[in-house]
Amino acid sequence: MKPLNTSSKSLGFAVPLLSLRTEQGPCGEFPDIAALAGLARLWKMDLIQLLPVNDTGSQTSPYSALSAFALNPIYLRLGDLPEAKGSAAEASTLGVIAVLSAELGPSSRVSYQAILSRKLKILSRIWTMARAEGGASFLREIEDWADSQPWVKPYACFVELKRRNAGLPWWEWKDLREPKDADIDRLWNSGDFIDATRFWGWIQMRASQQFSEACQDARRLGIDIMGDIPILMNADSVDVWHKRAFFDTGLSAGAPPDMYSRLGQNWGFPLYRWDAIERDDFSFWKERLATADAYYSLYRIDHVLGFFRIWAIGKQERDGFLGRFEPEYTISYPELNSLGFDALRIHWLSKPHLPGWVIEGALDRLPDAARGPLAARLFERIGNEDLFLFVPWVHGGADIVKAVEQAVAESFPARSPWEGIQACEEALLVWWRNRTLLETTPGKYIPSWEYESTQAWTSLSNQERTALAALIARRKAESLALWEKSGRHILSVLSGCVDMKPCAEDLGAVPPCVPAVLGELGIPGLRVLRWHREWDKEGNPYVPLAEYPENSVACTSVHDSTSLRQWWAEEADRKAVWAFVRGAIKASRRAPR
Predict the structure, then answer these.
(1) Domain 12-232, CATH 3.30.420.270 — does that match?
(2) What is the pTM of this model?
(3) End-to-end alpha-carbon separation of the chain, Å?
(4) What is the pLDDT of residues 173-201, one digit of tens each?
(5) Within 10 A of 224 (CB to CB), how many other CB atoms are there?
(6) Alpha carbon distance 300, 454 (integer Å)
């Protein structure tokens, strides 16, 4: 739906719905959005931004969704369900709900698992009574609604299969790990599944109705609701399970190393196969945005950089250090060869070569009985040199850690953990990361994140370094053009397919093409007060408000930072903040009225 406020500045706040507290429930619930909208109007605000409200199953992070479409049952107000009000056991059901609110509501933190578990039990009780009373007409209402929402049947089947598999991820199930549409239809209509799948469908139908009504109530008060669309999906989600062709499960998404994370970040989410998504006319994303458009008038694109390029990490890596951008232009074997690097030199550049003293020093931290077996398991000697390679089956840091812990456990099964395990692992991981080039596919390479400080780089002549650095620079420039083309194409398609207004979370190491494309498409970026500073000036003053782009979303904090109150109490550079405030006040007094 279109935003209400399109011609002037908006003011509002961002909240996780779960954290809202009223007398109506043990945590924030869909109807509380309308109450919050009333407060926003009283405070002369016109915007509420919600963190994602998707179903995350047993996980508490709203950015680790079980489904791109389904809503979290924890936000349902059970007492507002028509089945609870119309049931023959209404008084008893409402009494149970009141006890739930009294027991789990007053604590300082939301008891997510306890509340969700209790709500699902109460929903099951209400469902049993409603189905007995409603009969075929009740089921028909659910089935008609599911027919109008293509995602509901796969979701209901997935959740029920996950329940029957003791909550295990889909890749650990005994069967139905690669379902076809025919499998979904069969399960949906199977006598053994009918009651369960309609139960999950009923929950989603009622959640959608409550959420829609709350958003419409807010809209009637003149308040826009901004949603939050996480860019990535949990590997253990119905979307990855059912739409496997759209996802690359062989890689994990994350973020490269920066000043806040020395080794980068590994989020564990699969990457998109944008070529497959485009061949399907972006149907997955269009359906996702169309579903959100039923509730929101604006939406936040989480990690918008991921539409330009995303940091891709091997599945066996523990951190994000040995990642690469996807897409990215690589350096070929013939190109390296033309610079004078033969096969042995390229191997030297792309594989960590460990001196014997390094291995000895790392293994010295372990018990004597574990050292020999671990050395044999992890390393192979290069000829007669005191130089070693990791064995071919080691594909990432996780393999190294597993080998160390297994060697110690076999040697000293009664003593775990051994004090030196972590130190040994870290010493070996430092060398695992010590390579100048990463081989992405056979004969294709990219520079590692800190290639200029690696063992192999420092061994090159000045001439070799100059030539290789020039080639790396050319590839980076070519990749920048590729990212711009990719981001412009994807965002152009997605931003024009719904009435909601997009806003972009463009934090991190942002290449120059990102703000350029966002500006072309009229998508406002994010400016976070605590990080929006003039870092090249003495004292790192905050950027004056007058210099914020007119088309931007300015805020004091974001979902993965501390709150405004905690930031002020524990982190804020108060001298710089007060200078910023004084400047803002002076500017407002000078501004024409």
Answers:
(1) no
(2) 0.92
(3) 33
(4) 999 999 999 999 999 999 999 999 999 99
(5) 27
(6) 39
